[in-house]
User: Fold these one by one.
Assistant:
Number 1:
Amino acid sequence: MGLLRKAALVASITTSLTIFILTAPGTHAQGAVVQGPAVHHYHLPVQSLAASLQEVALASGVSVGVASGLVADHRAPALEGDFTPQAALVALLAGSGLHARQLGNGLVIEADEVRGGSSARPGEGDPAILVTGSRIRGAPVASPVITLDQSAMREAGATSLGDVMRDLPQSFGGGQNPGIGINVPTASGTNVGGASTINLRGLGSDATLTLLNGHRLAYNGTRQGIDLSALPFGIIDRVEVVADGASALYGSDAVAGVANILLKRDYQGLETSANIGASTDGGNFRQQYGAVAGRKWASGGFVAAYEYASNTNIMSNSRAYAVSRPGVIIFPAMRHHAAALSGHQSLTDTLTLEVDALFNKRWSLGGYATNNAGDWSLSHADTRSTSRSGAIAPSLKWDLPHGWRLSLAGVYGTETVTLYNGIFTGANLTSSASGCYCNTGSSVELAGDGRLFTLPAGPAKLAMGGGYRYNSLQLFRAAGSASNIDASQDSFYAYGEVSLPLIAPQQGVRGIDRLNLSGAVRYERYPGVASVATPKLGIIYAPFEDMTIKGSWGRSFRAPTLFQQYSAQSVILYPVTSLGGTGYPSGSTAMLLTGGNPSLRPERAETWTASLEYRPHQLPGLHLQLGYFSTIYKDRIVTPITYTAQSLTNPLYASLVSLSPGSAAASAASGNPLLFTNLTGAAFDPARVVAIVNGTSLNAGRQTIHGIDMLADYRTRLGKDGGQLTMLGNIAYLSSSQQLLPGAVGAALAGTLFNPPHWRGRGSISWSSGAITLNATTSYIGGVEDTRFNPRVKISGMVTQDMTARYAFGPKSGILRGTTLSLSVQNLFDSHPATIATTAYYDTAYDSTNYSPVGRYIGMGVTRAW
């Protein structure tokens, strides 16, 4: 396997270096340049649509015709960036009920009702666009796709992709994310190094596949998530989220779905930004400074970005709901440098080189006072981390005859989190420990897609490919430590996907406007673990132009993480009462086994979705979507003991407990003395051990997840000079339960402490007119139940309101031309989490997986396009 790993690395480095050689001035013939539509930079304020159309025509030299009076009552939104004439008109006409049509060498503006066929839908009809959820360019996707673009994020006051994804109702704040408390069960969340990851449906950061421009990246920490904060916020164009199983297309980890982060392309110019703000309850002083620069030329272009950001910590003492455990840092102090680059260059008429690269370095500091008074000057423990990540992803794309494209792509990335834990008495360091979570990932893939044959409804298309992936984890705690890990995993895969348009609008079939079938299958082999084949089927049916019904069924899988397999098994000796035991003789003890399991099997899931989309032509700009999903997740890898204090009392754990173990206790303790911990305060006596509890990772019986997504999007203009109104809504309902072992009684997950709530929702209304944009957003996170007690304790949810105002100076504003000022207030009424019961001085006194401690946050920003 070493030869293959080296080949993947060499392919990545070789193709990335090619960009410097072949794109240097004079290295390729002028005749080899592909001449596409001219791209121009536009800086248009909110104004009449007629004025914006005239400026596009003047800047591009393309004739733009419009019928008299057709645009008289319309206003155009602000337009900033680099666009072809067609793309500029699409942006200006969005939600207006108008569209642009090619006519000879020019463009003509028409009302939507005169257009033949079905209305344009995202990702459909353009043979050059690859939408997340399919490996075929221009193919419609049978799974619902949620798109979050840069402008909408900024209008809502966001400056961090991690915050954006945690606000998404389909996502969950558990898994690997900053601010996760120590009292959160490992299965629900943790914080190693301050990384932000996506956790769709609460199935785990390791069950959500995160891509960058379609590429995999190196994992972060131990949970196989991808760190969102590694990217400068300004370079992000949009994020496409498919909350549906997609292993048939993308392989392991895509059980809950896929999130594809797409970077800006063909950016021209320079934009700088600065943001500053703080929480009114104290702490969380944030600064963010960034720059995005790009250049476009006839045969290629690039965009590069840099960002520096920092925030101070939030102490429990400053929050009334958390002060019961004073001296705890409930949100860590962090700072980071992030840089990213994306470029493309035509090497010949048919061959294009593309490269994406990123680098990030982040520092994080958390900790807690080690006394009930919460006094750091007496004693405290802190955790310092330094994270470094980097990746390079070059690819070659070769356009072949008959619409086919062949691509060769390579990725090499690293993610290193170095931890340092110190325990202090006063100012004196009394003990310390350090370690490193070092991940490496590389891959190489050869893929192609294009037309198979032509059906009456359109071309049948095929995508196929294969490749090799390599991941490694080195977990280093101390020289010679028995808990160190040095493990790696290879995988080989091949896939195929087909898209068949059976009926199209031009055929005039009664009761069927469009009908499309799709299918995919992927085979993946993990030497020494398993081989898995995962299929997926999809159908898109439109009974008439305004309505689309979609359905999908598929199987997905997730290979066990290297940490889950090879984490060292340890033995902890407790007083039996600490594990919930009662009625035993004084001095009785119990053992808890923890750690990895090299015999773990891949997790397997079966998912189906159904959705209904409605775009009424009577009300242009309105898009409604209702979706249902169901997932049966088998062989789920879990750490079975959620709450240690219930080990001997919870009937769910009965099959994991060995009573009266006798000599087995002595064997377990002597197996590796370096990993034996005695917490009883007395000498170890095997005769006093009354129980052994197996808390090592195992394949659980099954999880059942189902729910409903409701989304609404409405964009319209409020008459003459009334501005543009945009209303967005997203409501998600989730129900999930877990059967720990075959035959065991199922237990609820969703709606319980440290798991996703049943209901989440987010709605916004945005109005723009002239230079002003105003946005109001309301978010709801439902309540949960604390199942640690009988009877259960209800924990109330949170409702927050955010307000954002932006003012963009126009082209006649002198030195302020191109400047945008913003003011945002998040959580306007200072809503806060409910307090939960705690048992230790380091516990976070609220559900830190669901509710934010930030409170009311006031931020200001300035952006300048140069």
Number 2:
Amino acid sequence: MQELLPGETSEPARGQAQDALSRLRLSGPSPVPLPAALALTVGGGGLLFLAFPPVELWPLAFVALIPLLWSLRGARPGRGAVLGLAFGLAFFGATLYWIFLFGALAWFALTTLSATSIALVGAVGPSLLREGRPIRSAIGFASLWTAVDWIRGMFPLGGFTWGSVGISQVDDRTLLPLATIAGVWGITLVVVVVNVLLFEALTGRRGASVRRAGLGVAALTLILAPFAVPFSEPTGDPLDVAVVQVDVRPPPNTSAVQEDLLVARKNIALDRTLVGSTPRPDLVLWGEGALDPAASGDPATMVAVQRAIADVGVPTAVGAVMDDPGGLQRTSELVFGPEGSRIDRYDKVHLVPFGEYVPWRSRLDWISATRQIPVDRTPGSSVHTVDAPGLPPFGTPICFENSFPAIPRAFVRDGATFLVVPVNNASYGFTAASDQHLQMSRMRAVETGRWVVDAAVSGVSAFIDTHGRVLTRSGLFQPGILRAQIRSSTTTTAYVRWGDWLPILAIVLVAILFLIPRRRLPPPATPEPLPPSPRTLVVLPTFNERDTIERVIAGVLERPEHPDVLVVDDSSPDGTAELVRPITARDGRVRLLERPPRSGLASAYLEGFTTAVREGYDLAVEMDSDLSHDPSELSRLLDAARQHDLTVGSRYVAGGSVTNWSRARVALSRGANAYSKVMLGLPIHDATSGYRVYRRALLEELLRTPFAGAGYVFQIELVMRSDRAGFDVGEAPITFREREHGESKISRSIVFEALWKVTRWGLSARLGRGPAAWTRPAHQRR
């Protein structure tokens, strides 16, 4: 049987007047042709790149997403993913151009992996962009972008945060204070919201100038409002800090061992220039990689390091790569006391994939570049502060770790009063990588309310206050001492206290908005009056219902509406048909249709419906043959059928009930119906009930196209298709009684089929598959 999703039928609904089609809008604005859309998205990615170093035209971030939004109008998931990927490839490909220094393969892999996050936004985003609802669209799309960006910072392999939109705004003095409350995620959210509002203002209905102006004012207000949020102010005493920066570039033909020793000697020599300085600094910092393995493992070099520190007489933090017992290698920050002895150590917990270790090394050994990383370093056990004599505790997120907001926050929660970031970006040369990294340190300073000192082995070193301002900085590969006063602090920002609450809220908002149908359906047409005594056919499917079928038939025949009965039996082994045959001989209102064994419940009802339509019945009734449906309640359903095209006997409306079921089973049934109602936007509470009355016009429409479900989900599909076709669907209370004879036909596989199909239909409708999925036609009856 061919499976059709809602809205995939190739013909209009039967009974729909031709002139209604001209007024029927099945979808939003026509999508931009794909070549033009790709050009737009690539251009938008380029605009966003310009908001970051090396160009740093940060206001462009507020409009850079508009080309992508324009291209996504009316896009289905596949097209949206392609457009999002194109945007991501353009943006990340340009922003991460410095990865080319490690080869085209590395650049392509990282760019593509990062771009997949925007592809996900492109696939899902159009379902959150609601035509004519700019505020909801802005909140939904921005929440999606923020949530995906947050997840990108965690998966895969611990995540990668480079290129987060909010980072571009470190020079935006009005918006930046928001980071003290919501972190970089709050700024990302606002920037994306502004993009959507401006897009809606540009593309809104002609003549709606007041509304367009209102959207512009709302966007401007969002940008300016955070200016009222105060930056965190440090509360501690001033500290004099000196950063030692050297030029790590070695002479030609220098071996790796010689290079390590040379860098160490340069740091020692430059550190010694502080001997006798007045006043002496309170803390000296060497960059990450000041002591690489050949130097940290050389006793003579380590003695020289300790002597230099002792001669200066100041606590010193040194970036080192340590070969530990057991063949383990770690990236560390060593803290030496003023007398030169090592007194504390922090080991980097978040290592750089393919930089400090090779994931899946055994499977990737065919890539020659992986052999450039001969040793997989071991991460530290936990984030913790370090201590030095005369200094308050401080945190030392090492290089890559500072790109993750959660790690500096963890240092501050552990008691860090200021942050030292040992940095080694020497491999990236004179590219924008160092300036991009510096932007992250500036954001971390605002988020945590802590001074941040970037101590780079070869630049860029910098001192950053709690407002995210760079007080002083060094150039790249310029040896020297960078020195400034900072202040420690024990204040706690809202972001430090609450953490990543905003992206979690964004995920919840996306889920809620995603579950809301894309379009509100207009009320269905009022059903036409039924005849005073409508002809009614009750369809009774049977398989091994010998113990109950006679009582069910008798109960139906007793109804004052004089319904006819059609028993559809699937060759019941218990002889159900043998009991029905004599009844058909005595009473012409009862007929028997015998079929091959286990032909299925859905097909039994469909054959009954077909018979009802073919023979001109006004109403057809679905009903179980095991006495779980009380024949005496049929009159109530038939009376309700005068107001509805489909009347469902409901257990879960006022007056309805269930007997002989456990609480767990009732809860499961209610949960399944609630899930179906939310996912499919159904207008009733009990879409799984099998006690129903259909009008002939509705059956004519339903029988035009094949059904996707053959089991339990068939009942849900009938309600969904009736509602989508513009027919009136209502409920009447019934009492459901658990069967006393025979066995239930519902299996676990049938339940799973229903769950899968309901989920698939709901997702397909929200993602735009099936143009009429959330649109009710202007139904007119002849």
